[in-house]
Design a protein that fits this description.
It is built from 13 helices and 12 strands. The chain is of the alpha+beta class and 356 residues long. The strands form 3 sheets. Strands 10-9-1-4-11 form a 5-stranded mixed sheet. Strands 3-2-5-8-12 form a 5-stranded antiparallel sheet. A hairpin with a 4-residue loop joins strand 9 and strand 10. Helix 7 packs across helix 8, helix 10 packs parallel to helix 12 and helix 11 packs across helix 13. It is elongated.
Length: 356
């Protein structure tokens, strides 16, 4: 579609974002696209309906210096067909303000449909149709489980704000996922041998079940939705708190063994989600000196061995094989070999005598 030949029918089929009063020189992003905006910028048109992430970094002027970009912030919103979402820039907070009242939104929407803002609206799609289609599909995969139920947990069911942080401050309202160091070191109940005790400690399936029950009323797909939002807030929003949540959720998933047998469909979808996310990460991630002993190596080692112990139906096995292909093609890493080399990352099985 040529954005210069947009008709009223096109406008009605797509969504739009009116982003008003943004300072020139600021960076505005939607999904995985980022632009530096000028004086005439008024928003983004021809946005495919669905879930989208809008990011903003204000241009800061300093005496004797060129513009500098502030910390990135933004929001996630679910757009209906023909919806016009309106935001005004908050100069004090240096981000977009809260939702406007219904009458104001209605007035702006009517003006938009009369094409009064069209001169300052940037089209969502790239200039080359193939690039646009690929980017659209990639984003849809990244938010495939993010729906109104997921957004509802973080606000009014329409918008979820986030603010990029530099120190990993826990400012986002994620569900409570324990880190590995917070995991219980013992398990009350029927384990009697050293091997059984070790299994109870290293298998975190009961933690996953408990978190999904408490935070998502037993809906495992909402857990995947939050996993996707955490990843997107990190990769597109540069939010370190979101990265910490994604890391904890991923480690939790990969350290479940009984859960794989109990919920094979969920783990099939979880591995598919992970495959789509990995291709968005830097290709040198596993070669970086700092990341050489990173959590992903440990996570994949646990996942590999847990899948070996579980009864995997064909869809789950195919999803894991696709994950292996992603690792091979994107990172030049043989996942099976990495898992076998890093067996030291697995908890040791301790055999106890009956007296112990």
């Amino acid at each position: 579609m040529n954005p210069n030949t947009v008709t009223i029918d096109h406008v009605r089929a797509f969504s739009a974002l009116l982003l008003l009063d943004v300072p020139p020189g600021s960076e505005i992003g939607i999904d995985m696209h980022i632009w530096t905006v000028g004086k005439s910028f008024l928003g983004i048109k021809l946005v495919p309906p669905g879930v989208h992430m809008i990011t903003a970094s204000a241009a800061e002027k300093h005496a004797g210096q060129t513009n500098q970009i502030s910390i990135r912030s933004g929001f996630i919103v679910s757009l209906a067909p023909a919806q016009v979402h309106v935001r005004k820039w908050d100069a004090v907070e240096e981000t977009f303000g809260e939702l406007l009242d219904d009458d104001t939104v209605r007035s702006y929407t009517e003006a938009f449909r009369r094409m009064e803002f069209d001169r300052g609206m940037a089209p969502y799609q790239a200039e080359i149709p193939t690039q646009y289609e690929n980017a659209r599909k990639e984003w849809k995969h990244l938010v495939s489980f993010v729906d109104q139920d997921v957004l509802l947990r973080f606000g009014n069911g329409k918008v979820w704000f986030f603010h990029g942080v530099e120190s990993g401050d826990e400012s986002l309202p994620f569900s409570t996922v324990p880190s590995l160091k917070e995991a219980p070191s013992s398990h009350k109940g029927g384990a009697s041998t050293g091997e059984e005790l070790t299994q109870k400690c290293m298998d975190r399936s009961h933690q996953l079940d408990d978190i999904v029950r408490r935070s998502w009323r037993g809906d495992f797909t909402c857990f995947l939705g939050e996993l996707q939002v955490a990843f997107c807030c990190f990769i597109a929003g540069a939010d370190l708190a979101a990265f910490g949540q994604w890391q904890k959720m991923l480690l939790l998933l990969c350290s479940c063994e009984e859960g794989i047998n109990a919920h094979p469909g969920f783990f099939t979808e979880a591995i598919k989600v992970l495959s789509k996310q990995l291709v968005c990460l830097p290709q040198d991630l596993f070669q970086d000196v700092i990341s050489n002993d990173n959590f992903l190596r440990r996570a994949f080692t646990w996942l590999y061995h847990n899948l070996q112990e579980a009864v995997c139906p064909p869809p789950l096995d195919r999803a894991y094989r696709q994950l292996c292909k992603v690792m091979e093609n994107h990172f030049s890493i043989n996942l099976d070999e990495v898992a076998q080399i890093n067996e030291d990352d697995l908890p040791a099985v301790v055999e106890l005598s009956p007296e112990q």
